[in-house]
């Protein structure tokens, strides 16, 4: 991590990722970029559905390939680049037939390395294959939920899942949340761990830097009025007065409380529910 001379109080603890050690290109491949209007937490009606989003520096969208539909064609990494829309690094790859695409690059791969998307690919970092071909204990990322549905799971910086077992046309995957889930063994995954694992160590340092990232301030519930939040009101500082945490809409939140929808469609695929609160930390440390 890169630290700074404490020229101001906020600068004292601020840290950033030493991008010069990883990034090999300062400008994206223009043919694989496009402009886009960010929703800033609004839905199609313009109403705020996700709070604390808005503003920030303008971004150019990189069209990253999560479908990986070019199979049995070797690819070579030509550049490793920063993507403002995701925490992991992306790589511009050149396929043997001349086509160029952006992919989410795994940790330890560098410019000049090669990979292939194939059912007969060797079990090596960067290669992509069906879950039924991946040995038990292997770390994977970019996992499909449904066969040929495109990568949906385990895409953030430094994250990985682990193949636990193969049973009756399903592969058991242990996800970063500690949940163990069944996924059809014809779904595909990439071998390795997502790059930029130092991202979790970044200290934002000051409020202004959060605004550059498009993160707006969060107001404590206890500082609000009774009409705005269950914790609001009171003449002075007041505790929440409730045994369990809740959101402004009265739903359970955080601190070991289960928030998953009771009748969620995918419950039948969950072998072991994720750990929450202290139990989650104990599971990770164990």
What does this entry show, briefly?
The protein has 286 residues and is mainly beta. The chain has helices at residues 9-12, 207-212, 278-285; strands spanning 2-3, 15-16, 33-34, 61-62, 75-81, 90-95, 100-104, 114-115, 128-130, 139-141, 143-144, 151-153, 161-167, 170-174, 180-184, 188-191, 270-272.
Helix content: under 10%
Distance separating the two termini: 26 Å
Q: In the CATH classification, which architecture of the largest domain applies? A: Beta Barrel
Number of domains: 2
Order of helices and strands: EHEEEEEEEEEEEEEEEHEH
Strand content: 15-25%
Secondary-structure-derived class: mainly beta
Q: In CATH, what is the class of the largest domain? A: Mainly Beta
> In oligomeric terms, what are we looking at?
single chain
- Helical stretch count? 3
Which stretches of 5+ consecutive residues score pLDDT under 50? Answer: none
Spatially, the strands of the biggest sheet line up as: 9-16-10-13-14-15-17
Mean pLDDT: 93
CATH homologous group name of the largest domain: Nucleic acid-binding proteins
Q: Biggest β-sheet: count, sense, barrel?
A: 7 strands, antiparallel
């Amino acid at each position: 991590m890169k630290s700074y001379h404490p020229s101001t109080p906020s600068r004292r603890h601020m840290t950033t990722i030493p991008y010069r050690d990883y990034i090999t290109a300062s400008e994206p491949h223009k043919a694989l970029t496009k402009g886009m209007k960010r929703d800033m937490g609004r839905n199609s009606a313009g109403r705020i559905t996700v709070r604390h989003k808005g503003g920030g520096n303008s971004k150019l969208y990189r069209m990253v390939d999560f479908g990986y539909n070019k199979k049995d064609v070797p690819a070579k990494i030509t550049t490793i680049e920063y993507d403002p829309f995701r925490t992991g690094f992306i790589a511009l790859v050149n396929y043997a037939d001349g086509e160029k695409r952006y992919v989410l690059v795994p940790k330890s791969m560098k410019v000049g390395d090669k990979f292939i998307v194939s059912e007969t690919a060797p079990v090596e970092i960067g290669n992509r294959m069906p879950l039924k071909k991946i040995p038990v204990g292997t770390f994977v990322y970019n996992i499909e939920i449904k066969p040929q549905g495109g990568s949906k799971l385990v895409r953030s910086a430094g994250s990985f899942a682990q193949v636990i077992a193969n049973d009756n046309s399903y592969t058991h995957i242990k996800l970063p949340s500690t949940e163990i889930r069944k996924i059809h063994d014809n779904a595909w995954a990439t071998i390795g761990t997502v790059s930029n694992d130092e991202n979790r160590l970044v200290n934002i340092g000051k409020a202004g830097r959060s605004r550059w990232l498009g993160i707006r301030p969060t107001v404590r519930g206890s500082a609000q009025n009774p009409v705005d939040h269950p914790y609001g009101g009171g003449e002075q500082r007041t505790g929440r007065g409730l045994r369990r945490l809740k959101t402004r809409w009265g739903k359970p939140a955080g601190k070991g409380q289960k928030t998953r929808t009771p009748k969620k469609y995918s419950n039948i695929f969950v072998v072991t529910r994720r750990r929450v609160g202290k139990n989650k930390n104990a599971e990770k440390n164990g």
